[in-house]
Amino acid sequence: MADLSLNILVLNTYNKLTLGVADISTYPDSPAVISPSLEIDIPGFGVTSVPFVPNQFNVLNSTILGITESGDDLVALPDGVYTITYSVTPAYENYVTKTIQRVDQLQEMFDNAFMKLDMMECDMAIKKQSKVDLNTIYFLIQGSIAAANNCAVDVSNKLYRQASNLLGNFIKNNC
To answer: Are residues 22 and 95 in the same domain?
Structure first.
C-alpha cells in the first residue's frame, strides 16, 4: 500500500493559449482520493479553482481558468508568476504548491525578433552587438524563470520586466 504523496509537474506546452500540469503523485489504495483540484493564482485575475484529473496530463486554457466564457475564442494566458496548489479529499493534510514564471508571450516576441535578424548580413559589427543584446535578453528571461522556480517572486518579476523592456527597445531599434 502506497502512502499519499502529492506532486505536480508544470510543463511547457510551447503555446501561449495553454498551460500543462501533470500529476506525478503517489496515491494509496484506500481510502479513495476524491475531488482533486487545482487552485491557481493567475496574474491579473486572482485565484481560481479548477477540476483536475489525477495521474494525467491536464491542459488548461483561458476558458477552463475562467478568463473567457465557454464558446468564446481562447485568449493568450498572461505572462507572470503563477502559484499552483494541488489538493485532494478526504482532507489529507497533504498538498503541494508550485510557483512558476510564465513567459510564453515574451518568448514569442523574442523568437520573432531573433528570426528577423539577418545573421548573414555584411555588417558584422552591428550583428555582433545584436547577438549580444539578444543573449542578454535570453539570460534575463531564463533568470526570471529560475527565480520563480525558487519562489523569489520579486526577483522573477524584476528580471521579466528588464527582459521585456530590453526586448521592446531591441525590436523598436533593430527590426
So the answer is: yes
